[in-house]
Amino acid sequence: MADLHRESLSKLTVAALKDELSARNLPTSGLKDDLIERLREALEREQSCGGISDNVGETNEQSKKAAEEKQKEESALEDKVTQLLSFMTEMKAGKVEMKTEMKAGQVEMKAGQAEMKSEMKEINNAVKVANAKVEEFEGRLEEMEKKFEKLKQEMEVQVTEESRESYETPQEFGLAAANQSQNARYMPVVNRPCMKLLPYDGQTSWQVYKTQFAIVAEANGWDPITKARQLASSLRAEAADILRTIPDNEQLNFDALSSALELRFGEKCLKDYSRLQLNTRQQKPNETLQELATDIEKLSHLAFSDCPTEVRETLAVQYFVDGVRDVEIQKALRMAETKDLKSALVYAIKFEAAQQASRRDRHFIRGAEVKRDEDPLLKVMTQLLEEFRGMKQRSGEETGKFKRNNARCWKCGAEGHLQRQCQARQDQRPRSLSRNNTQENGSGGLAGRRLPENEKPHFEVLQISSSSENGLVTNFLRCA
Q: The organism sits in which domain of life (predicted)?
């Protein structure tokens, strides 16, 4: 019976066996023999329980269904295989076409390589021809140099013979030749300058002139002695007075000459002076903003040459804002918070232009006035009356200038009024106050004190007279 079950179960597929095992809640892992053995044991257990016949029938039906599904899968697999074969045939055809195209490309590449090789050969031939011409030119140049050396030697021999003939004895000729060679050893080789050097009078920056001098000296190829001669000959005015302080043996020493000029006109000596100028620098009445900014930039470079660029720019902007004369422009610059001097100058120029434009846009309207015929005498009298009022007002202002703010009464000793305005009686004045006033005045009393000139009473009189010849005559009298 067990063999019968084994033969019937061996006909089932692995999938059917797994389905049967999963239906019985048994493990489905392992080989087919393991699955058959596991299912057989389960069937035997079921048969022992009395239901083996029914399960076998169901197993046959399931095996038939599994066989049908297997046939369907095999047919689908055959379709896929046919599709794969057709795709492989297409790929083979594409490979053939690609091979033909690659062969054609290789042919073209070979043709291009052949053309390139021919061009390279032509280039190599041209280079060889050029090298041959260069070698030929170098050979000619060497021949010319040899001829020049030979000609130079012949000329030296000829000059030597002529100079030897000019001396009476060979000893004199040898001594002169030795002196000439010794002098030529210590004489500097002066190159003819190809760039002009500007004079220096001490009014401009020595650092700028020193830079220009270095550029010209390098371009002309001057040695130290030539530089010293050129620098000494270019000094003018106050700068030329430096030559008096340099010893005679240091006149041709470029370092000594430049050190003396640096000490007199260098930036180290001008640093403190430039800072003082920056602190007191203000815009002049006819000075533009550009001129003020240029001067402040120059002074800041001299005063703060050791500081970083950002710090120097910040200080220059601050001094520029403080030096602007117009209060409105200065206020606008403080509110703008500019970072460098150029931006501050541009902002100030724009603000100034806007101010001028707004001032030009203001149009004043004249009022209509009706002229009437007036009496000349009345007009003159009106003018005189206005002049009299003006003089009276001016005299009152002059008198008011000399009035004391802390006026003290000489009668009662109180402040705030004078003696003529005092309303207190003589017998009601306190003795203590009188004693204190006496001590404050520093004398035994107030008797004999004179009024100051500005408190003396005065009066003014305007005298107007008329005559038939000259018209009206006015006299202004002031009496004290």
A: Eukaryota
Each residue of 185-209: pLDDT tens digit?
Answer: 444 444 454 677 788 887 777 778 8
DSSP string covering 18-64, please? HHHHHHTT----S-HHHHHHHHHHHHHHHHHTT-HHHHHHHHHHHHH
Helix ranges (DSSP H) in 337-427: 341-360, 376-401
Estimate the crossing angle of helix 327-336 against helix 309-323, to 10 degrees: 150
CA distance 303 to 270: 7
97 or 196, greater pLDDT:
97
Q: Taking the CB of residue 20, how many other CB atoms lie within 10 A of it? A: 24
- Residue 329, amino acid: I
Distance CA 71, CA 135 (A): 92
What type of residue sits at position 450? R
- Interval 434-473: pLDDT, tens: 444 444 444 444 444 444 444 444 445 555 555 444 445 5
**HSE-up (13 A, CA, CB side) for residue 307:** 14
Whether residue 197 contacts residue 224, with contact meaning beta carbons closer than 8 Å, is answered with no
**Distance (Å, rounded) from C-alpha 340 to C-alpha 232?**
40
Tokens of 232: 């000494």
372 phi, psi to nearest 5 deg: -120, 155
Closest by Cα among 161, 160, 164, 224 to 189: 224
Give the global pTM: 0.30
Torsions phi, psi for 477 (to 5 deg): -115, 135
The DSSP symbol for 415 reads: B
The 3-state DSSP class for residue 362 equals coil
Q: How far apart are alpha carbons 79 and 239 in whole angstroms?
A: 110
